[in-house]
Amino acid sequence: MFPPNNLPLPAETLLVTDELYAPADFILHRHLVSSLKGASSSKCVLVTVSGDVGRWKSVIQRSNVKVAQYMESGVLTFLDAMPHIVSAMDGGSDKPLMNLLEELKRLLNVSLAEVRSSVILDDIASLQWMGIPAPDLVRFTRALSALCRKNNISLVIRHHVTTPGEPDDVLKHLLQLCTYHLDVFPLSSGRSGAVSGQIALHCGPGTAKPVHRLIPRSAAIQYRLTDVGSVFFDRGTGSGVL
């Protein structure tokens, strides 16, 4: 089965990278819906940078998930990052992500400590484009990853790649930080009606014994987006494996 349903495991960090012509929205949607369907024993915090909570709710509802019910019960929490960042910057702080990190600490330590939980950060590149310095982003993601490990919480971070093959300092850090790296990228020939893009799965440098089958770019799984989700298949076959 691809992607594996238990990716990432508790205390692991999954880095999801995508490119302009192969956005990884469907991967994040799939992970969130999968987490919510096990809601009796799990909780999820979705941190949005672009403030597109309405779009997330719409996508989840199309998967027959009762968003309002999960939010009322505390199973699902949407956290808009921008007010916390703006308040820190307006206050003259030289640590623009400190308020956001403190709010996450409050949520993770209070709400999620005793159940299987996950955090999705969508996305880190938008913070770069806002002008937040790379060292601040590195410190923030390192602290968030450590916080999730401490509380046995899985962490998913999305990063948009704008210069494929030329990683910047933030991406280099994330590649060192992650347990696994889900690499979503377009066909070299461009998108077609039958194939929307490709996915490879790599492990981070600190993962000594991967529990998932790794997939190099040279043997990437292909996918096709549909009205109701996504279909994955081996390269050149066009037949679904899910």
Task: Write up this protein.
- This protein is α/β, with parallel strands linked by helices.
- The protein has helices spanning 25-36, 53-62, 67-73, 81-90, 98-111, 125-129, 134-150, 169-177, and strands spanning 13-18, 42-48, 76-80, 116-122, 154-160, 180-185, 197-203, 221-226, 229-233.
- The chain is 35% helix and 23% strand.
- A 9-stranded mixed sheet has the order 3-2-4-5-1-6-7-8-9, sandwiched between helices.
- α4 crosses α5, α5 runs parallel beside α7 and α7 (134-150) packs parallel to α8 (169-177).
- The termini are close together.
- The model has no long low-confidence stretch (mean pLDDT 87).
Strand order of the largest sheet: 3-2-4-5-1-6-7-8-9
Shape: globular
In terms of DSSP E residues, the strand content is 15-25%
* End-to-end CA span: 6 Å
The string of secondary-structure elements, in order, is EHEHHEHHEHHEHEEEE
Unreliable segments of 5+ consecutive residues: none
Q: How confident overall, as mean pLDDT?
A: 87
Q: How many β-strand runs? A: 9
Decide which structural class fits the backbone.
Answer: alpha/beta
| Oligomer state of the chains in this structure | single chain
Question: What does this entry show, briefly?
Answer:
The protein has 242 residues and is an alpha/beta fold. The protein has helices spanning 25-36, 53-62, 67-73, 81-90, 98-111, 125-129, 134-150, 169-177; strands spanning 13-18, 42-48, 76-80, 116-122, 154-160, 180-185, 197-203, 221-226, 229-233. It has a 9-stranded mixed β-sheet with strand order 3-2-4-5-1-6-7-8-9, with helices on both faces.
